[in-house]
Amino acid sequence: MAKHSKKYQAALAKFDRQKRYELDEAIVLAKDNAFAKYDETFEVAINLGINPKHADQMVRGAVVLPNGTGKVNRVLVFAKGEKEAEALAAGADFVGGDELCEKIKGGWFEFDTAIATPNMMVSVGKIGKLLGPRGLMPNPKVGTVTFDVGTAVTQAKAGKIEFRAEKSGIIHAGVGKKSFEAAKLRENIDALLDALIKLKPATAKGHYLRAMTVTTTHAPGVRIDTVAVAASHKLV
């Protein structure tokens, strides 16, 4: 087991690692326990009562966080003609077609989100092995393959995040920055929870929200009372 730093151990001593806290209290604890000198990402991990090995229990989607993510999102759009102009008008950082695909083949990845119109997916599919492992492949399930590129770009710039359950059924997501007010972090987390609840598979059995923690990039995680969270979101 890796030995944690003195700062990590000091943060760990400030709260009961085994206790499951109310969400608002946990957010404050996680903010107070952050010790890095930069503005760390505020993260949430949620263990869902699903089995992602079954296709009908995979949970994947996207949500626009009401208070954004706290970071600049560089958006690339694969589009041509009037859709190219629409994307640029909406604030896309990079817009183009095959020339962008060639640039990516050459090792360029200076963007955080990729959006594509459906007619561009033949070209984009050819670089799928480069985009996929980096989580940059456009996908209709999360709204990044669409002819409505203006809306897609606006949402991406406003703080849209994508999420997908890992093999263990855990969702990891950055929901803001350490510097965010606790109330704004709560609003972002609630938005994510609402999205996850809407995507609850009909075949999922038992408790849907099995476990949950909040933390900043380097600090220890604070456990959440998921029963209280489920009740507040009317999850039965």
Query: How is the main sheet built?
Result: 4 strands, antiparallel
Strand order, main sheet: write it out.
Answer: 7-1-8-9
Q: What do the pLDDT scores average to?
A: 92
Which structural category fits the helices and strands?
Answer: alpha/beta
Helix content: 25-40%
Shape: globular
Report the strand count. 9
The residue ranges in which pLDDT falls below 50 over 5 or more consecutive positions are: none
**Measured distance between first and last alpha carbons:** 38 Å
Number of discrete helical segments: 9
Beta-strand fraction estimate: 15-25%
Order of helices and strands: HHEEEHEHEHHHEEHEEH
Short description:
The protein has 236 residues and is α/β, with parallel strands linked by helices. Helices cover 33% and strands 20% of the residues. It has helices spanning 6-12, 23-33, 82-90, 98-105, 121-125, 128-131, 149-158, 182-198, 226-232; strands at residues 41-48, 60-64, 75-78, 94-96, 113-116, 160-164, 170-177, 209-216, 222-223.
Polypeptide structure, described:
It is a single chain. With 236 residues, this protein is of the alpha/beta class. The protein has nine helices and nine strands. The chain has helices spanning 6-12, 23-33, 82-90, 98-105, 121-125, 128-131, 149-158, 182-198, 226-232; strands spanning 41-48, 60-64, 75-78, 94-96, 113-116, 160-164, 170-177, 209-216, 222-223. It has a four-stranded antiparallel sheet with strand order 7-1-8-9. It has a three-stranded parallel sheet with strand order 4-3-5, with helices on both faces. Strand 8 and strand 9 (222-223) form a beta hairpin. Helix 3 (82-90) packs parallel to helix 7 (149-158). The protein is globular and about 55 Å long. The model has no long low-confidence stretch (mean pLDDT 92).
